[in-house]
Structure formats: C-alpha cells, structure tokens
Design brief:
Layout: H1 7-20, H2 27-30, E1 31-37, H3 48-61, E2 62-75, E3 78-89, E4 102-114, E5 117-125, H4 127-134
Parallel strand pairs: 1-5
Antiparallel strand pairs: 2-3, 3-4, 4-5
Length: about 140
C-alpha cells in the first residue's frame, strides 16, 4: 500500500526546500496560481510572485539562513507551523541596511491547501524582535 502525501508533508517540504534551502524553482509547483497572502506586509506581493520575491529577498538579506520547524500540525486543508529563523543580516531587508548581526526570529503560519498546493496564507511574525536585532530599532 502506498502512503498518501499529506498537507503537513507538503508544508514540511516547502519549509525545508524553499525557505531553508532556497530552491525557488519549486514555488510554481508548491504554491497555487491563485495564492493569496492575507497578511502580506506593505510592499510585499500577495500572490505567488510575492512568495518568490520574499524568499529571494530573504536569502539575499540573510546569509547562513536556517529555518527550523518547531511545530507543524494539520487539520483538513489547513496546516499551521511555528518556525525559528536564524541567520546573519548581511544584505538589505525592507529598507533596513545590513547590520552584520546574528538574528533569530519566530514565525507562525497558517496555510490553506487547494489541489495539493498552498492557496491561502496568514502569518504572525516576530518582526519587532527582528528589527531590534538588525539595529533598525533601539
């Protein structure tokens, strides 16, 4: 019997390969063409291209980026993750110049899947902590 891939498996794969690994070529396969980010930051696209732009910018701004899944649970077509991001801030990030600082911040995501792809997204990110660590806020 072949075991079915679950939405949780798909989310783990996205985090490991795209967010952590920088494999941006997988975005078209993993993210639905009608994707909508309900909590996009100003200047951040709400569609699939916004996912790509954010991931590219994150990997450009943060060297040695690691993304660790702390919790990942699914309920039907919804998957929630709690993640820890660690990196060195070596490039501009949303108009914050590189600080060279080691940073660590956490993100909680809720994603709705449709047709086996990420279709909707909501997030709560510890942006305040990240801005303090980069020196943008004191």
């Amino acid at each position: 019997m072949v075991e079915r891939e679950t939405h949780v498996d798909r989310m783990r794969f996205f985090v490991e390969q795209v967010q952590h690994g920088g494999r941006f070529e997988l975005i078209d396969t993993l993210v639905h063409a009608d994707y909508h980010n309900h909590t996009a930051e100003p200047g951040q696209g709400k569609d699939r291209e916004g996912v790509r732009a954010t991931m590219v910018a994150m990997h450009a701004a943060f060297s040695d980026l690691t993304v660790q899944i702390l919790h990942c649970v699914g309920d039907g077509d919804l998957v929630a993750t709690h993640k820890r991001f660690r990196a060195r801030h070596t490039g501009p990030w949303f108009n914050v110049p590189p600080s060279g600082s080691q940073v660590e911040f956490r993100v909680m995501d809720l994603v709705r899947y449709r047709d086996g792809q990420m279709a909707e997204h909501w997030a709560v990110a510890d942006a305040l902590s990240l801005l303090r660590q980069t020196g943008a806020l004191t």
